[in-house]
Structure formats: C-alpha cells, structure tokens
Amino acid sequence: MLTAIAIDDEPKALDVVEYLAKKVPFLDLKQRFTDALEALDYLQHDNVDLIFLDIKMPDISGFDFLRTLASPPMVIFTTAYSEHALDSYEFNAIDYLHKPFEMVRFLKACNKAYDQKNLRQPELAFQNSIFVPDGTIKIRICVDAILFLKSDGNYVDFYTTERRITSRISLTEAEAMLPRGHFVRVHRSYIVAKNKIVKYDRNEITIGGQTIPIGDNYKESLKIK
After folding, report:
1. Distance in angstroms (rounded) separating the CA atoms of residues 194 and 183
2. Of 48, 47, 177, nearest to 121 (Cα)?
3. CA-to-CA separations, 42 to 32, 38, 128, in angstroms, rounded
C-alpha cells in the first residue's frame, strides 16, 4: 500500500485528487490540506510515502515547502503552470501533473511512485544489503561499504570502499533504498554515508579521498553528527 497526503490551496483541486485516489487500489490518501503549514505539522508525527503537492500557494510555495523537510517523502507536483516543470527536477519529483489531469495520467504517476517504493523492499535482500538494478540484473551492495552516491543524468554511481557501481535509476530512487538515519543528502547530486565522513565545513565534505560540495539549499538544514 502507498500512503499519501495532498496539499493544495484550492479545495476543488483536492477534490479531484481525492476522487482519483479512491480509484487506485494500492493508494491510501490519508489527509488533504489547503494549508501547507498544517500539512507540515502533520508530517512531524505521521509518515507517508508520497505527497501530491501544488506549487503556487499563498503562504509558501510547494518548492519551499519541500526545502523545509529534512527527509521529504516522494512527491508528485500538481500545478496549472507548466513553466515550473524544469524546476521540479531539482527535487527529483516522481512526476509532474499539469492541471487539469485525468485518471490515466494520474494512475501513471501513482504507478511510478509504487514501483519506487518497492525498490526499498526487494524480496531477495540480505540483512544490511541493498540490490541495485544493472540492466536486467540486480547487484548486491553491502550498505556498510557505501561511501557516497553521485547522480549523473539518468544514472547513479554508488561509490563503495571497493569499487564504483553504476545503476540506471534516479538519486531519489537510490535514496529510498538506503536505511534511514545513516545517509544524508548534501547536494542535489550527492548523498553521503555519515559514518564515512572525514571532515566537513559549510561548503564541502571530504569522504573516501574525494571532496564533495554542499549545495546551498542543504546548508541550513544539514546536520551531521
């Protein structure tokens, strides 16, 4: 089951999401919010897999809302403004639904989110390991051996203590496979293992003999212990 909330300042837009969500058998829409700040309070004590998120809202934009979350869930943007599509890639959005949208388009987006969630729960996973796709096969990687991940277009490089493994997935998909609390996103293109960090300051991190930049959008919220 895929759990979700919807955030939009227009009640009629939420009505559409709620109506379509009820028709998707694997989707459970827990709550709907016209106030993004109320949604923020909800997420402080309730976890969900997915957010249907409007971009243009009166108090805070959808983009800024995501920036306030240390570990945001997957997101599907819902907006009437197509010019924001390019900006949505900064957040590795699952999909971008341009209003008005109908069932087929909505279901396609939900299927993407559902597939990504399943990457976190591979049937053949061993304890303390993940399986990453490489063409038609999956390669087992020991979590303790991972130094950092780097996004390169449609691919992600897993840098480990022994080798580099390239997989055709997004960085958001890769992040969903990793155990929570052990890794941290420091840049739109980088995720690092906390216990492998040698040193860091506000601008960069040294890990595995390499220097990794810290993105401007991550500096204020980044907490590494």
Report:
1. 6
2. 177
3. 10, 6, 31
Q: Which pair of tokens denotes residue 25?
A: 């058998």
pLDDT, residue 177, reads: 86
* Residue 143 CA to its chain's centroid (Å): 19
Helix H or strand E encompassing 56: none
C-alpha R_g of the chain: 18
Dist CA 145 CA 128 (whole Å): 10
- DSSP secondary structure letter of residue 105: H
CA distance 183 to 55: 28
Beta strands in 63-189 (DSSP E): 74-79, 95-98, 129-134, 137-142, 146-152, 155-160, 164-167, 183-187
pLDDT in tens, 135-184: 778 888 888 899 999 999 889 999 999 889 999 999 988 988 888 778 88
Q: Are 132 and 171 in contact (CB under 8 A)?
A: no
Single out the residue of 122, 115, 153 nearest to residue 140, CA to CA: 122
Q: How far apart are CA 30 and CA 209, in angstroms?
A: 45
Q: What residues contact 110, with CB distance under 8 A and at least 6 apart? A: 2, 24, 26, 27, 76
Q: What is the pLDDT of residue 44?
A: 86
pTM over 0.70: no
Residue among 129, 126, 62 at smallest CA distance from 91? 62
